[in-house]
Amino acid sequence: MSKRYELRFSGAGGQGLITAGIIMAEAAAIIEGRYTAQSQSYGPEARGGASKSEVIISDEPIDYPKATAVDACLALTQQAADKYAAGVKPGGMLLLDSDFVKRDPEGDFRIVKFPIIRTAKDEVGREIVANVVALGAMVALTGIISRESGEQAVIARVPEAFIELNKKAYNTGFEKVKALLA
Amino acid sequence: MAFDYEQYLRPGKLPHIWCPGCGHGIVMKGLLRAIDRCGLQKNNTAIVSGTGCASRLPGYVDFNTLHTAHGRAAAFATGIKMAKPEMDVLVVGGDGDGIAIGGNHFIHACRRNIDMTYVLMNNYIYGMTGGQFSPCTPTGDRTSTTPYGNPDPIFDVAKLAIGAGATFVARTTAFHATQIDKLITAGLRHKGMAVIEVLDDCPTAFGRHNKFRSVVEMMKRLKDIAVPTQAASQMSPDQLRGKILTGILHQEEKPEYCEQYQQVIARAQAAAKF
Amino acid sequence: MAKKVALLQGNEACAHGALYAGCRFFGGYPITPSTEVAEVMAVELPKIGGTFIQMEDEIGAMASILGAALTGAKAFTATSGPGMSLKQELIGYACMAEIPCVIVNVMRGGPSTGMPTGPSQSDVMQARWGTHGDHPAIALAPSSCQEIFSETVRAFNLAETYRMPVQILLDEINGHMRERIEIPEPGDLEVLNRQLPTVAPEDYKPFDDTQGDVPPLAAFGSDYRYHVTGLNKAADGFPTSKPELVDAEKRRQLRKIEANQAHIEKNEEYRVEDAEVILVAYGTISRSARAAVDHLRNDGIKAGLFRPITLWPFPEKRMARLAEQARAIVVPEMNLGQLILEIERATRRVCPVEGIGRVDGELITPAEIVAKVKEVL
Questions:
Q1: Which terminus has fewer CB within 10 Å in chain C: N or C?
Q2: Partner A contacted by C363 (CB < 8 A)
Q3: Cα separations (Å) of C36 from A37, A45, A89, C237?
């Protein structure tokens, strides 16, 4: 592992990608005690439009706080995949929602895909937790934080009544990617 | 026994800057009588103004006094009152200061119903800058910037305050000297935003442009146009044309802002316990 | 004991720094990208009995904190670009009446509405000269979220120490970025309070300079009564237009900074000892510059970073000394050349001073800085 690791969560506004990035950052920063910088692009629209959240995790203090060569990128929409795949570094990884990204971007990276939003709806039971499914998937894909840290960070962030739902979402996403990588 | 104004005046700060014949001094004396009647303590009282002739009043009186930027008095006063709700806070100022450049602060102080007393001296003009029209200059009147007659309609200060949510609104004139302190006293005793508009004369800037030959003539006009609210109810619309109503125009009980904020504190602290 | 660790946005860190410093009054008005500061204060202040008020406009917000500060409270407001323009009137009042307060300006693209969600560093000169008239200025430009916390505490200390407004300049990037920060325990960071009068109330003069350039400031509602005005005034606080008194007052207000520059100044230097190229950068862009220094060193170019944390007063003496050893100075900033003017003045251009300006809402990258340095050499 290089000392600086860059993740990007992209899709449409309202899909909870900024939250997914924040949970990833909380796991790395608070639970694992590592240098972490999380940022996002803001648009004036709270819903719809393009949305992007970036997390940089490092074993040294982070200087430039934005992604320059992305190690792993999530794209939940075709638009996001087309726009952000180019930022993935050679040998990096791209996680796609196979229902919404019909044309795979071309480049020197490994593509992993499954129907993320459909999994949230049909297997977990609520579409709203698709971002947590995606988070679990990104943790499995990258191994940049431990599975337990990610789960702990999810639990710390969600209200009591939704802990079980979110744990299920996180672990479902994790297991999906683990199976795909096997 | 004559009222002892000296006890509230800062030694060595007079003479004031107001022109001979200006009504601001009459208002200041009324204000001091009201403060005395209500027993306000000097150390616990803040008097805040913006900028303009009337806004020089705080410099002459012996309280915590704050002479701020043009129009901003109500907002400074809000900061004082919210930071130290136990203080008695008054605002004094003119029509241009309070209703034009400070209009936004004025209406929002009224809306919050924060417990302070605003004495607005309305002399229909910007006096300190030499007599330009204000939002209270009557339509058609002449000033140095309305040399062909004022095309603007006016703000009715009292109606504006009532509409904005002030819970005590009264009006009198500089001619009705004893009514000034009665109304300010009632305003100080009222819990919530109290606005007392005092129609005032500016012989130098307004009188000169509008063919008033003397201060006496201007004062006489203030006397003639004033109609107490009780009397007005017996008068026909024709009889009321060109008149203004005086006395307490509006009073109601509504939650006061500092008390409302105390409830916010209580709710926040209760929530923090869980 | 393990430190309390949190992942906080710069804006949130700023608000928590203010609370740590003893801030008990916030008067604000919503504006992107500073709003999170107000949101944290709205949650936290009532819990500790402090006051949060959302005012009717930016000027009202500024007025409310000055009123509150006169009652003895440490008072704070947050804004951005257009709001900062509006606040200038009363920043001048605070300088003139010598009222301590802290204003954070989360800079965004301008002028006018500009780019509300885009970062910028284009208010550097406004922070110095935004209000009319000769006046003192202190402006701090922290870089990381941890530093935003600690510099906010320092901003309150400086405001209280010198009885004047202090500005914190953030930008949309470090205002919204989240980083791991260690929350200091009470006592870890110095917290200073304004000097209160010790003379008898009847002898109190709010601008008495016989004991020093920063007169003690009494609180409204205490045993001391006094007058405050935005007019030029004598030691007793009452207006004057006597030339010698007006002159003395203005010079004393500027002297608060000039005579204490060493105490107010704060800089960070990175690999400058043998540097032939000095990068000068502040706030978020200093992070790009620091990365660029390492890249350049790897390429065999002796680069170093000089990072002023206090932008105003500008650390001119140290800057001048570094210029003497440099073959070139390169100044990346998210504007079209603001701090560079001060650097040119301080260094008297003993070496070439080149700027990299960006005003498109994108960060200046380390690669851009590296390329510019190679072009300059």
A1: N
A2: yes
A3: 18, 17, 33, 37
